[in-house]
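Re: the multi-chain job from yesterday

Posting the exact lines I submitted so nobody has to dig through the queue logs.
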Amino acid sequence: MIGRSDKQGRVNALVVEDSPPMRKMIVFALSRIRELSVTEADDGVDALRRIASTKFDIIITDINMPILDGLKLVKRLRADKAYKDVPIIIITTEGAEEDRQRALALGANAYITKPIQAPQVIKLVRETLGLLDGG
Amino acid sequence: MLAGVSGDDKALPSLQTQASRFLQEFLTQGEALVRDLIQENERLKSQADGESPTVNSVDVVVERLVQQIADLEHECHEIRTLAGSMREQSGGYQNRLDDLEREHYHLAAMYVAGNQFHAAATIDEVFRTTTEILLNFVGVGGFTVYAIDEEQQRAFPVVREGAELAECSELSLSDDSVLAALASPSGPWRNGGAMAASGDALMHLPLVAGTRLVGVIRIEKFLPQKNEFVDTDFSLLELISEHAGIGIETAWIRAHARDVPMQRQALESLVGG
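And the result, structure tokens for all chains:
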């Protein structure tokens, strides 16, 4: 299992999404995983700011965002020694096959397509982190 | 804990208890069998030391042992059957858990969407929220949002997803047959109400504040991975019809009344009225 970072021994997750309703729904889905402590970022720039002060164990990011998009964020993270191996899940739309392939080529581990469903998000995050079901 | 079953599930401890109990019984019987074998071995040894066992006594022992083996095999079969049914039960619980997660997620989506509409302070925010909900929650990939010019009795396109806005023209509320049918709503759209499909539109969703038509969404196509509306979509469409409508009217009033100072007499008349 991925190393647990916070004081309560929970896994730190960062959700990067510029759409407030979408971000709230991803956070809601992730709140079903008890082992996770979830932090929200409004966009790629906000994500980098948060990463500077906290070590995250998994990052879930949208691709289409203003200023610093998801692809640039994945590239920046993979260039950072501390985030070289941290799992990154990207959120895309079904039509964005090119973006998805680029993100995976840049080092993202997996992707979720919109509209998302809670069981799909929970299952993918659990599998990525190697967490047992039902925890 | 069994895979796929939540720690919250009250049924799980009973499944574990059942499994433990059968294993316990199985092991106890195995232990008894070993004891019997040792005892029998001792008896045969002492018989061999004294006198040669008769053919009959050996037959009885063998028969008893064969019977015990048959009993254990029968029990083993029962345990296997039970384990199979427990696996099935566990799968059922997992499906139920997934259904509950989906329902829970849908209710959260309704809450978040309603909250976003009521937090929207400008018409632009209402349209942005509408776009995000249609795209991300419902799975609609192509749509046009029309606002209503009540003076001119025309609907003009303000937001478009999946195609160019410039390709859309404004429509007359009286001349366009679909819009004419929506022009005097008795309330927001409800599941089971007319979809007002036409040409390449899957649906025309009226945006309503009370009985005032303030906008219309022409839903043109789904995202590639989706091909029809499901029940949860209809409740989101109901919510958009009502709350985006209220949001537009509220933002309109706010834009025009924000600079009007609040006055006691006016407020009292509103409170009293």
